[in-house]
């Protein structure tokens, strides 16, 4: 199982994401510098890193209300392509568009939660429920590729 996990490079992706978020938060908080975060297309790594940095910088985003605001602003309103990335679209033109970007981010949040449980208002069960509903299609929240589609 561990070899299969290693072959996905999942943990490497998490490590790089957490390091980038730490770099951003240190630049903003300790060095007082503005930061611009932008990946190749702006849809995937950008919200991962920015949303993680916000969690590191501001305790509000570690509350239930703050986390909801963060997901809504940095993922839903930002226009993350949940339909393509989660495979919810009926007519998927390119299977390569599927990618667990949001799930990776939630796992990174989980890693922070495991290290600093007293700094979060929510727990692991909340994150698991969020993952379940991201893929359950029971609610329209994580369907579509834009706020307009949702």
UniProtKB/TrEMBL annotation:
GO terms for molecular function: phosphatidylinositol-3,5-bisphosphate 3-phosphatase activity; phosphatidylinositol-3-phosphate phosphatase activity; protein phosphatase binding. Gene3D superfamilies: Protein tyrosine phosphatase superfamily (3.90.190.10). GO terms for biological process: phosphatidylinositol dephosphorylation; regulation of autophagy. It is found in: Endomembrane system. Coiled coil: none annotated. Pfam families: Myotub-related (PF06602). Residues 1-150 form the Myotubularin phosphatase domain. SUPFAM superfamilies: (Phosphotyrosine protein) phosphatases II (SSF52799). Its main location: membrane. InterPro entries: Myotubularin, Myotubularin-like_Pase_dom, Prot-tyrosine_phosphatase-like, Tyr_Pase_AS, Tyr_Pase_dom. GO terms for cellular component: cytoplasm; endomembrane system; membrane. This is MTMR4 protein. It comes from Centropus bengalensis (lesser coucal).
